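Quick one - first record:
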Amino acid sequence: AGAAADADVAGSPYAIVGTGVTGTGLGNYVVSVENGALTVDPRAIAVRVNDATKRFGETLSFDGTEFTAPDLLFEDRLDRIAIASEGAAAEASIAGSPYAITGSAPEGTGLGNYAFTFVDGALTVEPLVANDVPPPPPFGGFDLPEPADTITLDLPGGAIAFDEAAPTLVVAGGDEGAVGEARDTLRVVETVATRLEIAAQACGDSTAEISQYLACLSDALDDFAAELDDISTRLPPEMANVAQIVRTARQQVDAARTRAEGRLASAATDAERTQIRDDALAEAQAAIATASTEIRKAIALVRADDPELVSLRRQTIETVAAAVDTVGVELSRVTEL
């Protein structure tokens, strides 16, 4: 009964029953057949908690659905998980950012059939910027002298000016050149990241053969690293080794493919071949997860006087890490298929 695909873990171990003994000279023997035991192990499922961003001073609440996971089998369903982060509190400082967003306590249907692992997300606390400051109340009580007065407050990222003739807060000065360049760089990185995401999905859609699939992913990662090298002088200084991190992941994916090819050459059963494919995909997933973690470490190293520049640099790093995460999600999808 446990041989069926939908045999659940709760009913394990199942009896493996043998009957109808055949052979030669069996009349010389008293044959008894003892049952074997079929154990159904839980299926490994990786649940990635989604990244999040909030402003300093805000309280962030989670509803338990901020996660990404492959679909469960048959009627089984993962509805929500417990999500928490020290960075969710209003007083969580920018200096401690990014904070880990942890997942636990899965809720749903048929979850006893799965062994869940949780990959932390990252909560980035962004600084308040000048435009977040409410304008001062309308001036009243007596007429202002002529010409109209202007009040200016110097800040590290520029200056806030209140002009009586045009009563709005205006941010002026600051290193607009660096901010503008960082904004342009983010747009370029978003384009490069999208190309990796499209390439990773195309690999899974084009082939079901493990060696070809991993070779396709390797090529996509290599192209991604090359494009990051091409724009290396424009990237934030904290991303100096990002292309090498991607190449290391690519080398590990290649190594998993090579090992799988060698083992498949001597595999004798479908079960062996399935296990070899699963092992290769798991190795590739681990390499991608490590690369994503290493890239995100740079977020905590970002330093600049201008809060907007800090935010743009962190977004650039997060965009690259999220693109690498997409490769991991595609690996999970292919594993399920």
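second record:
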Amino acid sequence: MTQLKKKSLLTSTSLSTLSIFVVLIIWQLYSIQVSNPFLMPSPIVVFQDLIVLLSDGHTYYIIFVTLSRLIISVMAASILALFLGILAGIFHQVESFLKPIVVTLRTMPIVSVVVVVLILFGNTFSLYLISFLLLFPIIYQAELEGIKNIPRDLLDVLSLECNKYPVMVVKMVYLPLALPYFKTGMLQSAGVAIKVLVVAEYLSQTQISIGRELYFNRINLEYANVFAWTIILIIIVLVLEYIIQKYINAIQK
């Protein structure tokens, strides 16, 4: 069985590596066909620019600033979503009241949210608010589902024992049993949030941001740098998703 798993892993890795080479070959061929390094830089040129960016300390400062905005937004959305998710799980009136708001936020096109918030609140604060509005319904729904999945018999018994202390029921039952759902929702939303955050940075042209770097290099026709920053962003998202998945797996064990 172990040998089969190793063989399957080797096959999967080989195919993934092959797909990357296929993409690079297509990219190189298309670059040759366009024959204009400004419009379509070759993979080698982009890789060279990527090395230059990664060797510059300012690049890491820009990444740090963008990730700081992401962390603040995640924390704000998580605290409010945790509080309201517990209330909605306990009181169906709260769930009914919040349902139209949550559904609207979940279904509204992302570009509409970005543009409207930028118009209403300006550039800097909007970055946090946009990420918050995207994250809140995801985390809230996860917490709500966690509360609803708690066995009713357990709640009834503990409610009788802790009837005079409802706060103890929340602390001893609701929080521990719903926590895995909450963590999963919070972590899964982070990978999506950074993509939206960079779009908001791009549209608002926020100083010191990945989005600003993409915008600045685009208008200056430095498309190799655009590709290089895109690769950096892909790496960041992949690392975040890897950490998230490892953490989720640890929670579920």
